[in-house]
């Protein structure tokens, strides 16, 4: 079965930077599962997986616009230190989590004060050309419930 819209796809990946250094991988872990064609995956990765079959193993290098987006140099905000999650002592360059209306977001500390911090809200990998080594582990038709919910259920997907 080939990957198409309304397919539940399970895949393994290794993410590499411009120099080929591994940044992330799920090697040795459960495959990632998502519902294809429902904006649950980076557009560049989803496009690369379209039409592939179980067992397909390939690499794709994608520009920032198709992954984490371009860097916005004006994307700094001041937040209260009490909203930073992940450490008890903060220094510039450290990454923190903050809660937003759209869920948790990773930020990078630019400047620390006693009560307020200046943070860069760009994704840490924004603005970078990235290479994804992908392996399709499983493809199946989505259930009507998965399509209605807009995400994959079960192993590697949403658990509810």
Report on the structure:
With 160 residues, the chain is mainly beta. It has 2 domains: 7-68 and 126-149, Chitinase A, domain 3 (Roll); 76-120, Beta Barrel (Thrombin, subunit H), CATH 2.40.10.330. It has 2 helices and 9 strands; from the N terminus they run βββαββββββα. It has helices spanning 43-49, 144-149, and strands at 7-16, 22-25, 32-35, 57-62, 76-80, 95-100, 103-112, 116-120, 130-141. The strands form 2 sheets. Strands 1, 2, 3, 4 and 9 form a 5-stranded antiparallel beta sheet that branches. It has a 4-stranded antiparallel beta sheet with strand order 5-8-7-6, with no helix packed on it. A hairpin with a 2-residue loop joins strand 6 (95-100) and strand 7 (103-112). The protein starts with 6 loop residues before the first strand and ends in an 11-residue tail after the last helix.
């Amino acid at each position: 079965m080939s990957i198409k819209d309304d397919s539940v796809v399970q895949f393994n990946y290794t993410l590499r930077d411009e120099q080929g250094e591994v940044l992330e991988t799920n090697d040795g872990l459960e495959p990632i599962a998502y519902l294809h064609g429902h904006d649950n995956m980076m557009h560049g990765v989803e496009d690369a997986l379209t039409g592939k079959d179980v067992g397909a193993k390939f690499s794709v290098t994608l520009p920032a616009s198709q992954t984490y987006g371009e860097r916005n140099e004006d994307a700094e905000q001041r937040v209260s230190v009490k909203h930073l999650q992940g450490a008890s002592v903060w220094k510039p360059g450290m990454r923190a989590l903050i809660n937003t209306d759209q869920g948790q977001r990773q930020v990078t500390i630019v400047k620390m004060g006693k009560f307020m911090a200046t943070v860069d809200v760009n994704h840490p990998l924004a603005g970078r050309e990235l290479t994804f080594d992908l392996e399709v582990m499983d493809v199946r038709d989505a259930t009507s419930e998965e399509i209605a919910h807009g995400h994959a259920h079960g192993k590697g997907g949403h658990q509810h």
